[in-house]
# Entry
Amino acid sequence: MHAATSDNPEARAREAYSLGLLVPKRSLGQNFVIDPNTLRKIAWLGRLHPGDRVLEIGPGLGALTGALVDAGAFVTAVEIDRRLVERLRPMERSGRVRIVEGDILRISFDEILGQDRWKMVSNLPYNIATPAVMRILEDAPQVESMVVMAQREVARRWTARPGSSTYSAVTVRMSYFATSQLLGTVSRNVFVPRPRVESSLVQIKRLPEVAVDPTVAGYASMVELIYASYRHRRKMLRHSLAGWCSQEAFLHAGVSPESRPQELSIIEWGRLAAAIRSGDS
Ligand code: SAM
# Structure
């Protein structure tokens, strides 16, 4: 164990509260994991090798950060709350941790990640879990895989398969970049304060190539098409895309105009977007 980094997370959290040093901010999703076994398990699920570079979103009190260092990683941790950043600074003395004060939804990834290859392991702030993960997928190709904790319903949505009720527009967007898998649930009892929602762990692995050739159908136009359809998720595509997607385009794409948006995989959205594009030109 690295004494300077991982000491006892439960003791650290309890000390912070008892001294009144830290009133957790719900608006920042501040529920801290205090159970060392859970922290070790999350780090283990990250499949880290000694020397791996790991991005952590929201290190909080540094408990997971310590477990990641114990697993051999060099950690860059982005934390928005200055009170926590100040508490975390001493971890940098180990030479294995870099604390960056900032907002993960705004920070420049090229500045903090450079051109290296990264893994991400994080207990995400639940209120911004989806935009944070999407931003990494869209703007930080350096990050090749993630193990993240999120609210259970959100995790289910991320990992849903076509045809299921939780398969949503964001599921399709994620599957353009990556595959995802539910790894398990985490008890509310391992957090301080105890959250009001259930939590799950998810693994997200970036595909070697995006799922649809961008020269055939651009990502932005595909996203526009997907959201236009999902705005009327109970309607058949021939209704929700009337005036946008012709009968010929459906035929050309091999997509039934009678289908509903949650039945289509990213590959089918790609074919539909490509067919619309070729019909326009
Ligand atoms: N990693 C710690 C743990 O497992 O105990 C804390 C996790 S807590 C669920 C989420 C953390 O994300 C908090 O420390 C919070 O301040 C931070 N956070 C919230 N919004 C953020 C943002 N936009 N950018 C960076 N950090 C953020």
The beta strands are 32-33, 53-57, 74-79, 97-101, 118-123, 143-151, 178-186, 191-192, 199-206.
